[in-house]
Write a structure and sequence with these properties.
The chain has one domain: Homocysteine-binding-like domain (TIM Barrel, Alpha-Beta Barrel), CATH 3.20.20. It is 45% helix and 10% strand. It has 14 helices and 8 strands. Helix 10 links the parallel strand 4 and strand 5. The longest helix is centred in the middle third of the chain and has 29 residues.
Length: 366
């Protein structure tokens, strides 16, 4: 595997000391605005597939690359310094939901033997490799094009999502020791994705929307093993989705425990995203800021879900910008963006709102 991009850690660290960097918004929300139908999501390639693919947003990097490229273009043009690849579910484990028959439909259950077949499935492995490579290349193209036009470097973050399985919890109330998948299987699925993201040209690896810290542990182990075996290094950002009480959803770690679980990996930044709007997220961000000795990232949902709102969420760009400006003024931000419900218009407003503020000072560890 080649080292597609140099290690930007020092460069990004310098930039983060100078200003608050801006992340992008929600890929899924923005896709909705294009009004795609099932036939478009399938494209010619998957025309005869026997499962619906419209909700498989990652497949659009292969079947509708012009849409995904346009979304990256919009977010970079709106002021994003960093955009994520369209790969949130681009692992064999997650893609099996769309391409493999579910044994539960015939009285069976998903278990480690099932997932062993998944992670060794040649079709799925080839598919997710292509999805990650092409998604990274799409984002890379627009990062470089917008950087050339604007004179400011833009970065590509390889999005590594939480998977559709849990290593921490059993789905069977009568068998609390049962797990559908093993740590080694999750590790292998993540390693395959991460290799492809690096090969495709990512600057950053972003382990995000963590609801199960053990899943995320497997992702960080995958990153470290790849770095060591290939003698490479990229900056890593780690971000959790938390509930109203500030706990990661399944593993139930409060934010201080979350930081302590991942501090040894020395991430470029750690943060919170998704799950909550900025008002409900603020106290948990304050707790994380109080203990984290690295940069802080925050990209909340645009408020609470609202099916009557155009984006599916309550907050419009000016409201979202006002919250993020308050976060910045309070010294809580090094990276700011938006998750579900945040469009390019939201990100443009957030970028303007945080620009006058100094970034959070990273505590110095003696």
């Amino acid at each position: 595997m080649r080292m597609a991009q140099p290690d930007r850690t020092s460069e990004l660290t310098t930039a983060l000391a100078e200003r608050i960097l801006v992340l992008d918004g929600a890929m899924g929300t923005t896709i909705r605005a294009y009004g795609l139908q099932e036939a478009q999501a399938r494209g010619r390639r998957f025309m005869q597939h026997d499962k619906d693919l419209l909700n498989n947003g990652d497949i659009l990097s292969l079947t509708c690359p012009e849409v995904i490229g346009d979304i990256h273009k919009q977010f970079y043009a709106a002021g994003s310094d960093i955009c994520e690849t369209n790969t949130f579910s681009a692992t064999s484990i997650a893609q099996s939901e769309f391409f493999v028959a579910d044994p539960r439909e015939h009285g069976g259950r998903k278990e480690p033997d099932f997932y062993q077949n998944i992670i060794s499935n040649p079709f799925l492995n080839d598919l997710v490799w292509e999805m990650n490579i092409e998604s990274a290349r799409l984002c890379r193209k627009w990062a470089d094009d917008i950087a050339s036009d604007s004179g400011r470097r833009r970065y590509v973050a390889g999005a590594i999502g939480p998977l559709t399985v849990s290593l921490s919890n059993s789905p069977d109330a009568n068998d609390p020791g049962f797990r559908v998948v093993t740590f080694d299987q999750v590790l292998e699925a993540y390693k395959h994705q991460i290799r492809a993201l690096i090969e495709g040209g990512c600057d950053i690896l972003m382990i995000e929307t963590i609801f199960d810290s053990l899943n995320a542990k497997a992702a960080t182990v995958a990153v470290q093993e790849i770095f060591e075996s290939h003698k490479i290094r990229l900056p890593v950002i780690i971000s959790a989705a938390v509930g109203r009480g500030g706990e990661t959803m399944i593993s139930a770690q409060k934010v201080e425990a979350f930081w302590n679980a991942f501090a040894h990996t020395r991430p470029l930044a750690i943060g919170l995203n998704c799950s909550l709007g900025p008002d409900l997220m603020r106290p948990h961000l304050e707790d994380l800021s109080a203990c984290a000795t690295t940069h802080l990232a925050c990209y909340p949902n645009a408020g609470l879900p609202n099916p009557l709102a155009p984006t599916g969420f309550d907050l419009e760009p000016p409201q979202m910008a006002a919250f993020m400006a308050d976060f910045a003024a309070a010294g809580l931000l090094n990276l700011a963006g938006g998750c579900c419900g945040n469009t390019p218009e939201h990100i443009a407003a957030i970028a303007r709102a945080v620009a006058p503020h100094k970034p959070r000072e990273v505590p110095i560890v003696g």
